[in-house]
Amino acid sequence: MNTGSNEPGEVGEVAVASDGSQVDGTGPDGARDERGLGSRAPEFVRARRVLHLSWQVGVFALGLAVVVVGIVLLPLPGPGWVIIFGGMAIWATEFVWAQLVLRWTKRKVTEAAQKALDPKVRRRNITLTVIGLVVVAGLAGVYLSRFGIVMPWRIEE
Predict the structure, then answer these.
(1) At CB < 8 A and 24+ separation, what contacts does 16-21 make?
(2) Does residue 26 sit in helix, strand or coil?
(3) Whole-structure pTM value
(4) How far apart are CA 157 and CA 150, in angstroms?
(5) For position 40, what pLDDT does the model report?
(6) Helices 96-116 and 80-92 meet at what angle, rounded to 10?
(7) Of 45, 66, 91, 119, which is most buried by a Cβ count within 10 Å?
(8) Region of residue 20 (left: phi > 0; alpha: psi -120 to 50; beta: else)
(9) CA-to-CA distance for 7 and 75, rounded, in angstroms?
(10) Running along the chain, 157 residues long, what does each successive block of 10 average in pLDDT?
(11) Exposure class string for 65-90: b at 16+ Cβ within 10 A, else e
(12) pLDDT value at residue 27
């Protein structure tokens, strides 16, 4: 939190927590604090190698089941991608590679959301949507003027 002025050459005060990190979310070295990588298993599980390994196998199996359900739902009606990312989140509780993939995905989704909020991009998307709807309506009009509306149960051979 900068309590001083923003004039060049002046130094403002920064609120610092008891652990040395700044209140604005940056650490003692100025880098953003992110949750550490690694296992989030309870301490008593991590202390015993066999128990930790079986914990990891269980987390992997559960995450795999959720990801497979998400993949099955991709062509079907349902929230396939949401379920896949849920499975990745389950894996991320235990595996560093999944934590890195999840962080990368979150960063890309945030960037895409920021781009979508840009007024130029919104205007372009709206313009392209309107042009697409006009083309589809024109094609539907040509089809209906040529063939008319024929209900499936009234087809004459």
Answers:
(1) none
(2) strand
(3) 0.51
(4) 12
(5) 72
(6) 140
(7) 91
(8) left
(9) 57
(10) 43 43 46 62 75 85 93 88 90 87 90 86 91 96 86 67
(11) ebbeebeebeeeeeebeebbbbbbeb
(12) 47
Give the chain's radius of gyration (CA, Å): 27
Eight-class DSSP state of 35? P
Q: What is the signed CA dihedral for 103, 104, 109, 113, rounded to 10 degrees? A: 100
Instruction: Kindly write down the DSSP assignment for every residue of 68-120, as one continuous string.
Output: HHHHHHSSSSS-HHHHHHHHHHHHHTT-HHHHHHHHHHHHHHHHHHHHHTSHH
Tokens 């099955």 locate to: 72
Packing angle, helices 49-73 and 80-92, rounded to 10: 170
Residue with token string 């199996």: 61
CA dist 126 and 61 (Å) reads: 43
